[in-house]
Amino acid sequence: MIIIKRPGAGNDHDVTLGPESVTWRLGWYTRFELVVLGRAVLMQVAHPVIAAAVRDSYQADPFARLTRTITSSQLRLFGGELAEREAERLLRAHARIPGADEELFRWVHATSFDSLLTAYRLLRPRMPAIHEERLYREWRHTGEVLGIRTMPGDLTELREYLDEVVATQLKPTDGVDDLLEAFELRTGKAPGSEHLPSALWPLVRPVAARVLPDFAVGTLPEALRDKLGLEWTDRDERRLRRWIRVIRLVSAFVPASLLHYPMPYRAMLSARSSRA
């Protein structure tokens, strides 16, 4: 059973985040960093229990589920008092899933953070290691409201945990195949493109259909790529590096109010105001 650990209930810290956090100061994460969202979900649906739990919804509309995941994570990171309410909703929604226990929540929480940090390292100026560790501590603390009491203690332990699960528990699943097919974007829009004018989507879709699988597969741990039988050539790696250079260049000219989702953007402004 997963028990909700409420902020202030038996803790010496509040698990909700505020303007003093690195997460808020960075407005973490941007729309561009969501190109690695597919990496996190691939790592999650390679877990047989998760793949079985989400199969029907992914086959029906995989990106609708991913869009809801983005909204949920932003509420838990930037929602202040709404964070706990969203965590309770999330727990109720997952209580009906067979096998949904703390270990599965830990795996989803860990892979989501690792993928977003991977994106940050690829697409934005490298932050000091001490800030990365603090960012992870904040992410780990937000997991406590989901009942995740055994997250790895630091980034080194996180990497060891991820490597162990990849080696011992993950395998090819129908969920992996379904997600890779969804990346072709034959129907629907990609997450993060919901504000794009419909008239522009036919022009953007072919690019997005290359970018999403390139980032998802190319940034996976090599051991997992091999385990899933996903080919990745030197040519693929060069193409991924070109995408990275293009995104870094474009993001330098995009106004922060557009680069960030509204909720993280407001959080970032609040953090800057509190430090002024």
Strand content: under 5%
Over all CA atoms, what is the radius of gyration?
18 Å
Order of helices and strands: HHHHHHHHHHHHHH
Q: Provide a count of the helices.
A: 14
Distance between the termini: 44 Å
Helix content, binned percent: 55-70%
Query: How is the biggest beta sheet arranged?
Result: none
* Mean pLDDT metric: 86
Give unreliable regions as ranges: 1-13
What does this 3D model show about the protein?
- α2 runs antiparallel to α6 (102-123) and α3 packs across α4.
- The chain is 65% helix and 0% strand.
- It is globular and about 50 Å long.
- Residues 1-13 have low confidence and may be disordered.
- It is built from 14 helices and no strands.
Give the topology, please:
Blueprint: H1 22-26, H2 37-45, H3 48-60, H4 62-78, H5 82-94, H6 102-123, H7 129-144, H8 155-168, H9 174-182, H10 201-218, H11 222-228, H12 234-251, H13 256-259, H14 262-275
Which features characterize this protein?
276 residues; mainly alpha; globular; disordered N terminus
Concise synopsis of the structure shown:
This protein is mostly helical. Helices cover 65% and strands 0% of the residues. It has helices spanning 22-26, 37-45, 48-60, 62-78, 82-94, 102-123, 129-144, 155-168, 174-182, 201-218, 222-228, 234-251, 256-259, 262-275.
